[in-house]
Structure formats: structure tokens, C-alpha cells
Write a structure and sequence with these properties.
alpha+beta, 5-stranded mixed sheet, 28% helix, 119 residues
């Protein structure tokens, strides 16, 4: 039996290599993936990288495939934030667990929550 969506998602987040959780690109694209999920840089807001984990449409895990292509975890990382890979991993884990968009704040923190859509 395939693991539940939440369990599979937590396992994916735990397995993202630390080197992929820092030094984000400035162009949208996939940073890391497996058969069930992908970790994408969706784009830039005025002040942050918009990072998301999305379920893959053809995921072998049927629990994951049912929600695809939805975003299942989201983190905004402020360009001015000083952060570690483990802080990004923890923010994704919290987002996945609580169904929230998480923020890693820096000097531009006041603008981050109002800037989700890049406007």
C-alpha cells in the first residue's frame, strides 16, 4: 500500500538535498523532483523567491496523483533573509503539515505577506 499523501510529502521534503535548499535560481523551474513530487521555484515576487512543492500528475502513489497538479507546500524566502537549508526544510514541513504558506523573513519582511502574487 502506498503511503498517505502527508507521509509521502514529509518523506519527499526530508529527502531534498541540502544543496538544493539554498542558492535559488531567479527563473522559474524545477529544483528537485522524484516520481511523486517536484520542488519548484515558481517565480519571484518583488521581495522573495516563491518556492513550492507540487504533486506530479502521473505519480505512482495514488494518494498523490489524486491531488495533482496542486501545490502541497509553499514557502516565500525573502531575498534579504539569512537562512540555512534546514530552515527552508522546516518551513516546507510546517507548510505541508498545516496547509499554510510559510515565510522566511529578511529586511523586507513588512512587504513579504502582501507580495505573494508578485505585484
Amino acid at each position: 500500500m502506498a503511503p498517505s499523501l502527508k507521509k509521502a510529502l514529509q518523506e519527499f521534503i526530508a529527502e531534498i538535498p541540502a544543496a538544493r535548499l539554498t542558492g535559488f535560481p531567479n527563473n522559474p523551474g524545477t529544483i528537485y523532483n522524484d516520481l511523486n513530487f517536484r520542488f519548484d521555484m515558481q517565480g519571484l515576487t518583488r521581495t522573495a523567491w516563491n518556492l513550492q512543492v507540487q504533486a506530479n500528475k502521473n505519480a505512482p502513489n495514488t494518494s498523490v496523483a489524486k491531488v495533482a497538479p496542486a501545490s502541497v507546500a509553499a514557502v516565500l524566502v525573502d531575498f534579504t533573509a539569512v537562512f540555512t537549508a534546514e530552515q527552508v526544510r522546516a518551513a516546507f514541513a510546517k507548510s505541508a503539515r498545516d496547509g499554510t504558506k510559510e515565510y522566511i523573513r529578511g529586511a523586507n519582511a513588512a512587504d513579504a505577506e502582501d507580495d505573494e502574487d508578485g505585484e
